Amino acid sequence: MGTYMKNVTLDEEHIFSSRYPAVSVPENVTLPEFVLQGAELYGDKVAFVEAVTGKEITYNEVVRDTKRFAKALRSLGMKKGHVVIVALPNIAEYAIIALGIMAAGGVFSGANPASHTSEIKKQVQAAHAKLIVTDGPNYEKVKGLELPVIVIGTTGMSKGVMLSHRNLVANLCSTLFGVTPELVGQVTILGLIPFFHIYGITGICCATLRNKGKVVVMGRYELRTLLNALITQEITFAPIVPPIILNLVKNPVVDEFDLSKLKLQAVMTAAAPLAPELRTAFENKFPGVLVQEAYGLTEHSCITLTHAGPAEGFGIAKRSSVGFILPNLEVKFIDPETGRSLPKNTPGELCVRSQCVMRGYYNNEEETSLTIDKNGWLHTGDIGFIDDDENVFIVDRIKELIKFKGFQVAPAELEAILLTHPSIEDAAVVPLPDEEAGEIPAASIVMSKGLKENEEDIMNYVASNVAHYKKVRVVHFVESIPKSPSWKNNEKAY
User: Fold this and answer.
1) DSSP secondary structure letter of residue 317
2) Interior/surface letters 437-464, b for 16+ CB within 10 angstroms, e for the rest
3) Which listed site, 55, 237, 347, 431, has its alpha carbon 20 to 30 Å from 439?
């Protein structure tokens, strides 16, 4: 009997669900229909405004132009399922273009406008695209790709993630469940995260249209422009990323502005871990601004874990957690080696199961089968755990863990420590091959001007804060850490 009970325990599934009741997801509704439902009640309200040019688009114009663009696409011969590549920076019309494609039955595929022609060509070929939408400055990149091009009049190879309207509507239902009626029409959100990114088009544009708020559109990041927009546009909610928080805390440009004029209620940070010390410094400089961390991925239609929202009764997640499990989602953590699900407070690979899980990678059944198992669980490749109070914490990505003499070292932890050093402006930690250890942690460091600490000083600083095997073994001083348009370190896949 003892052996039998032991086997039952070993095979037990530890599946965690939301603490909140399930939310209903409407059947047979397209994403444009869902997010623009009730828009006529907010017809004259501004939906998108460009921070630099001041150009505004109202809800009436969003509805009208989405229909017009869809009609124009159909007149060009677009059929259901045709893929349209959109290579544009953040502009006020971006969501209209994306929703118009969907309303016409097409498939929206966002491309980084900073990509090289060869990279856009690969995306076009992989997706079997039928059309490209771009602007004047980027037309030269796409004109030779032998596809029709619509030019908008404005100033490792990626895997194509197939998301259905149902996937995206389900994600919005789950992520917006905490938005109370009195908040509808009241939120002004920063539109800086690139709209070709799932977070930008779904988490910012579509979520805001659904809630009849306003998006303040920024085509590129510049600190003074950001601060001016935050104040003059009275932005209440700002999705940003840790490097921007670092800038807001350490850059003297911030002191040129009267921060007492801010109407900012909360910032949400995702895409990379936020060092606890950096969070504290931000809270000290911007008192009263709530800092929320979130976690999401394209394969799960955007947001997967987040703080519930400002409404009372939804609970406040712990510092450094990415919040609670959202309604309609199931989560488990597995041992990456054995696949066995793990109990609370035990780090393992985060897996999620819900209506938001992608249909698969386009034309890539092998990668799809490695990512979504036979029971419908999406394997994220991220290491995390859930605690006794149902808070979820993300530790690092499996592929990024540095293997030092058999020990696993999380780059994010070392970066967080480095950023607490008063002389360090930015840092990135990567593995270096090593004959004896397998891999060693190496740090690229951006120092504040005029400061003279040497490599040994930096290594000693980290060593005094971590276990012996986690020490940084190599330090390089650099002028800057390369960032992608989503403000992720280019040296890393995070």
Assistant:
1) P
2) bebbbbbbbebeeeeebeeeebbebbee
3) 347
